[in-house]
Prior knowledge:
The chain has 79 residues and is mainly α. The chain contains three helices and no strands.
Amino acid sequence: MNNIFKNWHFTRIIRLIAGIGSLIYGITTHDQIFLIIAALFLVQSFFNLSCCGANGCTTTKSSDNKQVYKDIIKPLKLK
Length: 79
């Protein structure tokens, strides 16, 4: 519940505005597609979710800095 009131950033505000706009348009035109889009944007903005979920698109940092093809690719030797 605390996540709803914390960490409001630019993208989260844009999702909220898009959700409210889609909700108003969906109600005035009786269009269910816009109501579904509004629900998607509003849930994403309230719970700080992205399309991949909470921090679903982040990658982990690896401390291993191995060269992947070091043994396979041989350096070019010119004669």
